[in-house]
Amino acid sequence: MIVQVVPLLAVRTLGRRVFDYRLASLPEGAAPAGALVRVPFGARTVLGIVVAEGSSGTVGPDTLLAAERVAADPVPSDLVALAGRLADYYLAPWGACLRAVTPAHLLAASRPQREHLVTWVALPESPSSPGPLATSPVSPAPTPTEKQRRLLSILPSVGLPVADACRLAGVGRAVIDALVRKGLAQTWKQAAPPPATADDQQPTQTPPAPFELTGEQEVAVKGLLEALGAPEPERRLLWGVTGSGKTEVYLAVLEEVVRTGGSAIVLVPEIALTGQLVARLRHRFGFRVGILHSALGPAQRAREHRRIAAGDARIVVGARSAVFAPVTDLRLVVVDEAHDSSYKQEDEPRYDARTVAWWRVCQAGGLLVEGTATPRVESLAARTPRLILRERPAGATLPLVEVIDMRRQGGTTILSPRARSTLDETLGRGEQAVVLLNRRGYAGFLQCEVCGEVRMCPHCEISLTYHRQRRSLVCHHCGLQVPPPPVCPSCGQGTFSRGSPGTERLAEELQRSIPRERLFRLDSDVVTSGTRVGEVLAAFARTYPGVLVGTQMVAKGHDFPLVTLVIVADADTGLYVPDFRATERTFQLLVQVSGRAGRAQHAGRVLVQTWNPEVGCIRMAVAREVESFYRAELDARERHGYPPYRDLIRLVCASRDEERAEAGMRYLAERLRAYLRSDEVQGPARLPRLRGRSRWQIVVSAADADAGRELVGRAAEQLRGPYARRGLDLMIDVDPQWFT
Ligand SMILES: [Zn+2]
Ligand SMILES: [Zn+2]
After folding, report:
1. Dmax over Cα atoms in the chain, in whole Å?
2. pLDDT class for 294, splitting at 50, 70, 90?
């Protein structure tokens, strides 16, 4: 039989092309659509998906090559259809979209199966063992040495792979062997981190969930259940202030879905940062929860996908790609922290999981719930019915917020005297504090004190960030790492001043008076894996008094009942960037991080340090003038033709040759302007060079979004060949989240 195959390649020039092959072996009566096959393609062999039966007429029957089937089951038809929609909407290569939706267990069938075993270490089996920190001094166990104690103190109850444990504790393998000999630890072999670990390592201080729903929560649950039972696909915005207990509402609705034999997908920005939600889900639904996180290896991902496809895992929780989970009987998709821009994928296919989630609900029928304390402006204009939680349950109140005007503060420290003394008082009472500084490294730039030159990455037009511990200057875009020069290479005499302090410097400043074991840092320099995030959060949760310093990672979803003080060290970091969402992001970050204070019964307090106290988004975040903020933001968006009033398509032309990149983009802009109004095409504008490539950008905001997308798609299709031959790369980003 002749079939049409799409190779699973992210090659843009292939667009929506199909290729004909001969398919021999097929079980009796099976339709070939969706079959995963291996096909010869050019000089190599690649995976592909059969999208149709019969010839497309591109190859004569005599020259047809053979496709070989590699998995028994086909990719479900709803997912194949979804890939087609992705390709159309995001103007993305069909092959890349099909690869995104192909369940991992089918892909795994094309590889030799081998699960990688590693050695794990944990505390010895003892049912009453309450955890490493509570190890009683009166126990008759042999006393561990200093190094052994350090290792024990970082071990979570579920254990860790030996390599991770050694790295975290900074000890060698011999220390573990010695502990095992003393009977203070046990080791065994199992697959590299199982799906369940990230959440098991989460803070243990979570207060027991209130058994009864509050009045507001009950109203929300009732509203969602009604929508769930509606004959048409429905969507709802669950808008609840931080700490208002959105999780309880999700759980109640999920319960109903599972009870009636349906399945659900719960999307979270990042599994490691939302461990508490995952823990609650697992507590309530046990093995019926399937977890997809980025640390899963191919074999583990395949195992979870197999459980999901078989209907064993009824609730799938994961980051954005979990929106493609091969669930059967989908009834509900929950998008938690729905404002988070990590739902947008920054590689081909550049999809937004929030948009795709709605498409899946439309395919299957059911309900989409977007939950957040700080909705994105787009979800407010979409006229999505809202359910609102205004209060924190069980007597908890929203924290008091105070602005510290840095123009009136002297000194050279990052924290003002006022912030510093409040921090000391908080710690003095044995409570916890979170300090946010949304910039990593020691200093954002080094500047020569004589000639004024700033050290830049030679490949990217970006200043190099100084990392003191690593003794290096690092490019946060391309990863280049060089030792800082002793004197300025430009003038040969100046030494450097350090600008834009980051979390590393803040931690150093605090270390002068806060003991090392009470100070925790959370940013992508210290935590490189999901496991490590859980470690830091768990260690902080059981340390009081204690301080957690970090980037926006500290603002996400955690619930620390003993945090009574939040300090925003620099509210202005995200303000002056060329992006129309800068104000929205600043507002969201301030509201979100403020929400970490004063959970449970303890009153909370927030200090916001800023050089711009009168700037709208900061002023309104501090005063909790939520309605006014969104009204102002919607007005501005309408005036300037931004989402939600216009959909945007961002086009970037990149080349090693500056002139070619510019010429390429000018030509494309001219062609689009022949069909669009002048205000519908912005640019071309030059962007900073990255990885040695010059970049020019245009942004299309057509009043008729579908017509605009079609026009851009056609123009790009025609230009890709000629551009590729001239060494020009054309990137298309539909509904872009970033413009850098
Ligand atoms: Zn100099
Ligand atoms: Zn660079």
Report:
1. 84
2. confident
Among all bound ligands, the one having the nearest atom to the CA of 690 is 2
Structural domain 2-102, CATH architecture: 3-Layer(aba) Sandwich (3.40)
Residue 454 Cα to ligand 1 middle (Å): 8
Torsion angles phi and psi, residue 275, rounded to 5? -55, -30
Average pLDDT rounded to a whole number, residues 498-512: 95
The radius of gyration computed from the CA coordinates of the chain, to the nearest angstrom, equals 27
Closest ligand to residue 494's CA: 1
What CATH number should be reported for the domain whose range is 215-389? 3.40.50.300
Ligand at minimal distance from the CA of 463 is 2
Residue 467 Cα to ligand 1 middle (Å): 20
Q: How far is the CA of 714 from the centre of ligand 1 (A)?
A: 50
pLDDT for the residue numbered 190 = 67
- 191 or 471, higher pLDDT: 471
Pairing of strands 605-610, 563-568: parallel
CA distance 163 to 144: 20
Ligand nearest the Cα atom of residue 450: 1
- pLDDT score of 420: 95
For the CA atoms of 677, 678, 680, 681, the dihedral, rounded to the nearest 10 degrees, stands at 130
Cα of 502 from ligand 1 centre, angstroms? 23
Spacing, Cα 105 to ligand 2 middle (Å) = 37
Architecture of the structural domain at 649-734: 2-Layer Sandwich (3.30)
Q: Which ligand places an atom closest to the C-alpha of 448?
A: 1
Q: Which ligand is nearest to the CA of 461?
A: 2
CA of 572 to the centre of ligand 1 (A): 28
Q: What is the pLDDT of residue 496?
A: 94
- Residues 220-252: tens digit of each pLDDT: 999 999 999 999 999 999 999 988 889 999 999
Q: Which residues place a Cβ less than 5 A from the ion ligand 2?
A: 457, 459-460, 475, 477-478, 480
Residue 476 C-alpha to ligand 2 middle, in angstroms? 7
Q: How far is the CA of 486 from the centre of ligand 1 (A)?
A: 11
Report the pLDDT value the prediction gives residue 136, as an integer from 0 to 100.
44
Residue 699: its pLDDT value, please? Answer: 96
Which residues neighbour ligand 1 (ion) by CB within 5 Å? 448, 450-451, 488, 490-491, 494
How far is ligand 2, taken at its centre, from the CA of residue 689, in Å?
Answer: 9
CB contact at 8 A, 439 and 503? yes
For residue 703, the model assigns a pLDDT of: 93
Cα–ligand 2 centroid distance for 456 (angstroms): 8
Q: Given pLDDT bands bounded at 50, 70 and 90, which one contains residue 63?
A: confident
* Cα-to-centroid distance, 460 and ligand 1 (Å): 20
Q: Which one has a higher pLDDT value, 740 or 485?
A: 485
- For tokens 């988004």, what's the residue? 617
Q: What is the pLDDT of residue 620?
A: 94
**Is the model's pLDDT at 201 over the cut of 50?**
no
pTM to 2 decimal places? 0.84
134 pLDDT more than 60:
no
* DSSP structure string for 684-731: EEEEEEETTEEEEEEEE--SSHHHHHHHHHHHHHHHHHHHHHTT-EEE
* Residue boundaries of the structural domains of the chain: 2-102, 117-126+144-191, 215-389, 400-440+503-635, 441-501, 649-734
496 Cα: distance to centroid of ligand 1 (angstroms): 8
Same fold, 215-389 and 400-440+503-635: yes
Contacts of 32 (CB under 8 A, 6+ apart): 1, 3, 23, 26, 50, 53, 74
Of the listed ranges 131-135, 152-156, 157-161, the least confidently predicted one is 131-135
Instruction: Specify the fold of 400-440+503-635.
Output: Rossmann fold (3.40.50)
